[in-house]
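Task: sequence design from structure.
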C-alpha cells in the first residue's frame, strides 16, 4: 500500500505492456522507423515489474523454459537484424544499429549497403535491449561501432545522431548515448573524453542546470543526460556551481516534477529529475509522498501510465499523433520510467 492510499495496479500494467509487445494502436504506424525504441520501452518496463518472462513467453503456449528461451532468442535475433556492418570498402562511419528493418530490407544486402546509416540513439537502445535480454554481445561488431562513434563526434566535443555532412543535430543527448555505448562495450576509444567533458560543461546555464547545447534553456532531460555522461566518465566532480544545480532540481518538484520552469508536472520527470538528484547523492531532498501520489494518479484504468492524469496511457511521453517522425534520444517512456520511482 502506498502512503497516498493508492496502489500500483501491477497486473493491469503487465497486461498493458504485454499487449504492446504483440500489437500497438494504429496511431503508432508513423513510428515504424522506431520499432527498436518502442520494444525497449516495453521490455524495460516489464523487467522492472519482474515480468520479463511475459515478453519471452509466446502467447497461448505453455510456460516452459524451452519456450521462453526460444522467444528470447527470437527477440535477440531481431535486434541483431538491425545492425549495420562494414561494407567491403570499409564504410565504418555508418556502422551501428537502425531503429527498424522497414526502410532498409528492400535492399538485398542492407546490412552492408553504403547508403544505410546507423543512428547513435538506436545503437544505444539496441545495446540496452540486449543487456535486458541477457545477451553476451557475441555478435556485436565492436570495432565497427567504435569507429562509427568516432565519426559522430564533432570538433566541439558533441555527438551527432547520424553521420551526415554538417553533423545534423549535435547535442548532449547524443553524448549520453555515446557514453552508454562505450560503457557497455567497455571501450572508450570511440570518444575524445576531454572534448566531450568540456562540451557537457559548456551546456550549463546561468541557473546551474543544463541545456541541450550551450546557451539553451535548462531542461530536466538534458540535465540528466549531462550528469549521467559525466558519471560514466568519472568526472561528476568537475561540475561548477553544484549548489545552484541542486537547487534547480529540487525546485522542479511541485507535486510531481516539471521538466522546465513554469511548466506543469509530468510523470516522466520523476525519472529525469529524480535520477539526477540521485546521481548527485541528493535523493533525500525529494518529497516522496507527493511525487508518489502524482504518479499513481496517472495510472490508466486499462494499465500503463500517462504523462498527466486522465489522458490515454502511452508507451512514449505523449500521444503518438503528436510525435515527430524520428524520436530524439531523450523521448521519454512514461510507463517504464514511472515504474522506476513508484
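Answer:
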Amino acid at each position: 500500500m502506498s502512503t497516498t492510499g493508492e496502489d500500483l495496479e501491477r497486473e493491469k500494467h503487465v497486461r498493458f505492456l504485454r499487449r504492446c509487445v504483440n500489437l500497438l494502436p494504429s496511431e503508432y504506424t508513423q513510428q515504424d522507423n522506431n520499432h527498436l525504441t518502442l520494444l525497449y520501452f516495453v521490455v524495460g518496463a516489464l523487467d522492472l515489474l519482474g515480468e520479463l518472462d511475459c515478453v519471452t513467453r509466446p502467447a497461448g503456449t505453455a510456460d516452459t523454459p524451452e519456450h521462453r528461451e526460444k522467444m528470447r532468442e527470437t527477440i535477440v535475433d531481431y535486434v541483431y537484424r538491425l545492425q549495420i556492418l562494414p561494407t567491403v570498402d570499409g564504410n565504418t562511419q555508418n556502422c551501428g544499429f537502425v531503429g527498424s528493418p522497414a526502410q532498409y530490407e528492400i535492399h538485398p544486402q542492407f546490412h552492408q549497403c553504403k547508403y544505410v546509416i546507423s543512428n547513435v540513439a538506436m545503437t544505444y537502445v539496441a545495446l540496452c535491449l540486449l543487456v535486458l535480454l541477457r545477451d553476451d554481445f557475441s555478435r556485436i561488431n565492436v570495432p565497427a561501432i567504435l569507429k562509427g562513434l568516432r565519426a559522430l563526434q564533432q570538433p566541439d566535443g558533441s555527438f551527432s545522431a547520424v553521420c551526415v555532412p554538417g553533423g545534423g543535430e549535435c547535442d548532449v543527448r547524443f553524448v549520453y548515448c555515446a557514453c552508454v555505448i562505450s560503457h557497455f562495450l567497455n571501450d572508450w576509444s570511440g570518444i575524445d573524453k576531454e572534448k566531450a567533458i568540456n562540451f557537457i560543461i559548456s551546456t550549463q546555464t546561468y541557473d546551474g542546470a543544463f541545456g541541450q547545447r550551450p546557451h539553451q534553456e535548462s531542461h530536466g532531460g538534458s540535465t540528466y543526460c549531462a550528469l549521467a555522461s559525466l558519471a560514466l566518465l568519472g568526472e561528476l566532480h568537475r561540475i561548477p556551481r553544484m549548489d545552484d544545480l541542486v537547487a534547480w532540481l529540487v525546485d522542479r518538484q511541485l507535486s510531481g516534477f516539471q521538466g522546465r520552469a513554469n511548466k506543469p508536472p509530468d510523470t516522466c520527470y520523476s525519472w529525469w529529475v529524480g535520477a539526477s538528484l540521485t546521481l548527485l547523492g541528493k535523493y533525500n531532498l525529494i518529497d516522496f509522498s507527493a511525487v508518489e501520489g502524482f504518479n499513481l494518479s496517472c495510472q490508466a484504468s486499462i494499465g500503463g501510465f500517462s504523462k498527466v492524469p486522465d489522458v490515454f496511457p502511452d508507451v512514449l511521453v505523449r500521444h503518438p499523433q503528436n510525435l515527430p517522425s524520428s524520436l530524439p534520444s531523450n523521448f521519454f517512456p512514461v510507463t517504464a520510467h514511472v515504474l522506476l520511482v513508484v
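The longest strand covers residues 83-84.
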